[in-house]
Design a protein that fits this description.
This protein is of the alpha/beta class and 395 residues long. Helices cover 42% and strands 22% of the residues. The N and C termini lie far apart (234 Å).
Length: 395
């Protein structure tokens, strides 16, 4: 070592480095991945910004007190603005950041949240403005890519569950820079010409970038202004887009949207089939019961001709019995009459006429019982056993 060389202290060397480094990098933008994130109780944030080839210490003073649009955490890609500074106690340089913003998905998420808050404040997400989906739609429109799997799945489900439903596919890009404008125009056309009773926005799953066209402000306002109820069926169940919040109904998937619009038809068809089966069973039971009743009545029912013949025979028997009863009665009465007649004959005063006696009757038919009852000149009627003669009292 040279004896006349001037030695520098660590602090002096660090100050020289600081004086050279900081002015040269006082306004820089640096991007990278956050790692080793350490929030301090003071509100400052410390972390390492890295990429595949290097790492850089970053200090963001006052981060905890700021109104942040995103959460700082390990693994996210961010863009930092600030200046390079030297921290003498450790002898290393770092980036003193005064601005952080997310990159990639993080930036998109920030844009999503900002648009969501804006539209929500305008009432576009309010449940009060949402319209009910028709229970029995006969015609639906689907805005989607005509070559995508989503439309094939939907058509297959609707043909199976509601074959009488009319489906109109309105082609549009569902991914890329031009997709949002095309979908918005398609919505406006469907609403203007009243194409269908329900409008479905359909797209299969994908990354946030793939689904980003459904987070467009113009598209959101087109959905809100559409006179036809709108179902948003974008992505998978875990995916949410602005169109989901603005639409009248969100379906987890395009297939679920097809099931929703056809659900009432399926339920009604099932109900009709059940009622038809129950009606058939009731009719069969009724017919069996009526057949049994008819057989029972038929077994008890007598043929009218046989009934008449039976009654005629019964009448003949009654006539015969009546004839026999009348004959017996007449014979009995004749016998009694004969006895009475015999008795009367035996007691009759006419019986004595057979022995030579006669009956004298005065005029008027009065029987003369005593000679003292007669006067000279009276005329008498004398009854003999074999006739009557007239006589006159002369003495």
């Amino acid at each position: 070592m040279r004896a006349d060389a001037r030695d520098l202290s660590v602090s002096e060397l660090t100050a020289k480095i600081r004086g050279t480094l900081e002015p040269a990098f006082s306004d820089v933008w640096v991007r990278g991945e956050v790692s080793n994130y350490r929030p301090a109780p003071s509100g400052h944030a410390y972390f390492t910004l890295k990429d595949a080839g290097a790492s850089l210490s970053v200090a963001c003073f006052g981060w905890g007190a700021r109104k942040r649009a995103f959460e700082l955490k390990d693994g996210i890609q961010i863009l930092c603005h600030g200046k390079v500074s030297v921290y003498p106690p450790r002898g290393n340089y770092q980036l003193s950041a005064d601005h952080l913003e997310p990159l990639g998905a993080g930036a998109l998420q920030l844009e999503f949240e900002n648009l969501k808050a804006k539209l929500d404040s305008e009432g576009l997400f309010s449940s009060a403005r949402k319209r009910p989906i028709p229970r029995y739609p006969r015609w639906i429109s689907v805005i989607t890519s005509p070559s995508g799997a989503a439309v094939r799945d939907m058509v297959s489900i609707l043909e199976r569950r509601a074959p009488r439903m009319r489906v109109t596919v309105v082609p549009a890009l569902v991914q890329g820079d031009q997709a949002a404008a095309q979908i918005a125009r398609a919505i406006e056309g469907v609403g203007k010409h009243r194409i269908g009773e329900v409008l479905v926005l359909a797209r299969g799953g994908g990354s946030i970038e793939d689904l980003w066209c459904f987070n467009d402000e113009r598209l959101a306002r087109a959905i809100a202004a559409c006179p036809i109820p709108v179902i948003s069926a974008v992505g998978h169940e875990i995916d949410f887009t602005i169109s989901d919040f603005v639409a009248d109904l969100r379906a987890p998937t395009p297939s679920a949207a097809a099931e929703i619009v056809s659900q009432a038809w399926v339920e009604t068809e099932s109900l009709v089939q059940d009622l038809t089966a129950r009606l058939g069973q009731a009719m069969r039971r009724g017919l069996v019961m009526r057949r049994q009743t008819l057989q029972h009545v038929a077994a008890r029912l007598i043929n009218p001709r046989d009934r008449l013949r039976e009654q005629a025979q019964r009448l003949d028997e009654l006539f015969a019995r009546l004839g026999r009863a009348m004959r017996i009665s007449l014979e009995r009465k004749s016998s009694i009459l004969a006895r009475e007649e015999s008795t009367l004959r035996a007691l009759s005063p006419l019986k004595v006429l057979d022995r030579g006696y006669l009956i004298a009757a005065a005029e008027g038919g009065t029987v003369v019982g005593s000679a003292r009852d007669l006067r000279v000149g009276d005329r008498l009627s004398l009854r003999f056993k074999d006739g009557t003669r007239q006589a006159k009292i002369e003495g």
